[in-house]
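Deliverable D4.2, example record:
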Amino acid sequence: MPVAVITDSTAHLPEGFAERFAVRVVPLHVLIDGAAALDGIDVGPVALAEALGRRRIVTTSRPTPGAFAAAYREALAEGADSVVSVHLSSEISGTWESAVLAAQEVGPDIVRVVDSRTTAMGLGFAVLHAAQAAGAGAAPEDVERAAVSAAGSSRTLFVVETLEYLRRGGRIGAAAALLGTALAVKPLLHIDDGRIAPLEKVRTMNRAIARLVELACQAAEDGPVEVAVHHLSSPDRAALLANSLEERLTVSGGCLVSELGAVIGAHTGPGVVGVVVQRKPDFSG
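Output generated by the structure prediction step:
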């Protein structure tokens, strides 16, 4: 395709989707007790959950600009005329900054970098919409617009067992106010203007899942939507949530269920379950 679409591993595209839509994925880094690994390549959800369960020290870091530059050059060498690179929110990671530095090195006239202001399948849906536009032969600016429009038309909601992992990683910001009551409630959070922010406090996990369904229905605005459910080490909860969403919403293509990878999972912890609702993007303007 004349426009190559590139993202990072926090998009958590369901298995096979990157290949199907010709999306290149640059992995973030995970360090377990100081040993470096690549997200989704060297370490996945099972290994992460085991490491967290053993209370090993897990930290994450962004890809280097060199890793992005190599991906851009590879795409161009294989026939692409330009690149649209779509990444997780710059408010919660330096990944977008690394991509921008790489684009400046390779050529800002041929590499466009998009800050999705979200992550997980909020990012993933933006990437897939961009890839579909690229596959249809769209111009680079229109592929970029497809990503931006999709990202702006998504809602990401999730509930965690504890805020401890988000606190350790410095990713909760205002959600720190929920600490101290975390043992008595299940914190329900969302992505708000690129940041992880508190939304509500719910007494039980069952009630939290029911509330996720209610909020997803509000986000859908009675229209057809694409939906993804994420979890880490909670397949039963994810299945319950996905089934409830499919009963209540008009879901295009069925509800996608994807286990979180090592980077996002390291910050949310085992037991997390969430939903991304993707409305039909508005491409005006």
